[in-house]
Amino acid sequence: MEGTPVTVASVSEVGPGTVALELETPADFDAKPGQFVLLRAEPDDEVLSRHYTLSSSSVEETFELTVGIDPDGNLSPWLADLEGGETVHIEGPFGRITYAGEDDVVAVAGGPGVGPAVAIAEAAHDAGHDAVVIYQDDEPAHEDRLEALEDAGATVTVLDESADEDLADAVATHREDGQLYAFGFDDFVTFVADAIDDAGGDPDEALIENFG
């Protein structure tokens, strides 16, 4: 199998239908929050691969991927059932949308975009900067980490999927509070870009990762 073999350190539930896959960091793996990897595994003797964005603020000893479980899928349910000690393969890191600890941040997330958004907010806080997280999902994940960020002084707004007007208002309110990041599927990030434009900002200045 192609890629670098890595050991699964643990798998934990972090929300409805969502798990955090913690992997042991291989030698020379240097990734920043916002980047992603290609994960390969071989359930049932079939090699499968998916891209996952890092959801940990550092990669010193381990790093984390947040995996949404598709009940009809053939990879994510298998990953969710791992117990630790298994081996998967990774390639990367990939991606130019990163956070290196230099600015205040506004991280806007839709659905699975919460992983990198939380990682960037935590990295900003660790670097002594302010962080805003705006997260839209009917079944939020990483609530413990979001609460910890809020307790540490971050501004955290969690919205229902139907609350598009509130999402636009939150983007307009906080778009100048730091470097704006947006992570999510196409409809979501397009909405965020339009909200920035409607509020008088320049969406080209935002760092947007479209999950397709």
From TrEMBL:
InterPro entries: Cbr1-like_FAD-bd_dom, FAD-bd_FR_type, FNR_nucleotide-bd, MRET, Riboflavin_synthase-like_b-brl
Domain FAD-binding FR-type: 1-100
Protein name: Ferredoxin--NADP reductase
Organism: Haloarchaeobius amylolyticus
